[in-house]
Amino acid sequence: MELSDLYSEKILDLAGNARQPGRLADADVSARKVSRVCGSVIEVDLQLRDGVIIGYGHEISACALGQTSAAIVAREILGTPASEFLAVREAMYAMLKQGGRPPGGKWDDLKYLEPVRDYPARHASTLLVFDAVAAALEKRESSQQVVAQG
Question: Disulfide engineering: 71 pairs with which of 18, 19, 88, 113, CB 3.0-4.6 Å?
């Protein structure tokens, strides 16, 4: 398989026609992740109510693979419980690093990223949006624990 085979028509379509949500002015929490391997950068903003993601924004500078992941996340994340999103992230890691199955349901389009499994150097950019949202959720969780203890 050639590296160019990774960039299927579906991946290029998803990345190229993605709605760019932009940043949220009134985010509850934000996080920034940078891939040391390729230099891709994403900043995500979340709004949460009762453990459910009700607002999402991002700004991204990444290759088509990172843009595709981010586009699918931006399209599907609203209304997703934080715990479900973290399970999708785990499924993505398993798919790329352990040969696991792609996430299903509303996350089904992530299956188009399955060929990335054979290119470890591309894993970081593909997973960047998942890591950024997880970091934001973790930050939110720890800030709520501080408030609860205070």
Answer: 18
Provide the 8-state DSSP code for 127.
H
Shortest CA distance to 55 belongs to which of 34, 80, 33?
80
Q: Are 40 and 138 in contact (CB under 8 A)?
A: no
**Which DSSP state fits 22?**
B
Contact status, residue 19 vs residue 76, Cβ threshold 8 Å: no
**pLDDT digit string, tens, across residues 97-123:** 999 999 999 999 999 999 999 999 999
Specify the CATH class of 3-140 in words.
alpha beta
Question: pTM for this one?
Answer: 0.92
**Residue-by-residue DSSP string for 58-112:** EEEE--HHHHHHHHHHHHH-TTEEHHHHHHHHHHHHHHHHH-PPPP-GGGGGGGG
Q: Which two tokens stand for residue 147?
A: 């408030």
Buried b / exposed e along 104-143 (16+ C-beta atoms within 10 A) = eeebebbebbebbbeeeebbbbbbbbbbbbbbbbeebeee
Q: How is residue 10 written in tokens?
A: 């579906």
Amino acid letter, residue 115? P
